[in-house]
Design goal:
Length: about 180
């Protein structure tokens, strides 16, 4: 199975095939509107504005599994993101990324890139604290928190996994190599 075989749900509950993004670079992120990392929406939108024309797609999957930090309906989450952060990239239906109800796309992503590299002492300390409070992270490779990011190249290979503390603007070099 490859990434283009997956179908996900749009905010309006319509099916969407990731095959639509074939030949594009994808950045897939599980997000939350009430998280300490929520301001990363600004960096994600900056990257999208800068590189969308060159083939970047950002796929936003709200997730309420970590501290219940993505409350509200899909419509309310979308309204928040577009009003506060002016997001224009694709936002999909709220999902689960760990456990019995996890989205199959995330099962695939975690299998392809089971671990993230955490850089810097501050980020390592933050991730240690997050691991202690993350109740849904039970298996190796599970998503630890909101704003875990997966980078997919134009051929559909999941090439990198970034931890939640990783600033989206710091992945610009990686994006340029793929674009």
């Amino acid at each position: 199975m490859e990434i283009y075989d997956f179908r996900v749900k749009k905010r309006n509950d319509d099916d969407f095939s990731l095959n639509e993004y074939k030949g594009k670079v994808m950045l897939i992120v599980n997000t939350a509107t009430g998280c300490g990392f929520t301001p990363q929406y600004e960096g994600l939108e900056n990257l999208y504005q800068k590189y969308h024309e060159k083939g970047l797609e950002i796929l936003d999957f709200p997730c309420n599994q970590f501290g219940h930090q993505a409350p509200g309906t899909d419509s309310e989450i979308h309204q928040f993101c577009t009003a506060k952060y002016k997001t224009t990239f694709d936002q999909f239906k709220k999902i689960e990324v760990n456990g019995e109800g996890e989205e199959k796309l995330y099962t695939f992503l975690k299998k392809e890139q089971p671990y993230e590299d955490v850089h810097g002492i501050k980020n390592k300390m933050s991730m240690k604290a997050i691991e202690k409070i993350s109740t849904t992270c039970k298996n190796p490779g599970d998503i630890k928190w909101n704003f875990t990011k997966f980078l997919v190249d134009r051929e559909g290979n999941v090439v990198k996994r970034y931890d939640p503390t990783f600033n989206p603007m710091d992945m610009e070099k990686d994006l340029l190599e793929l674009l």
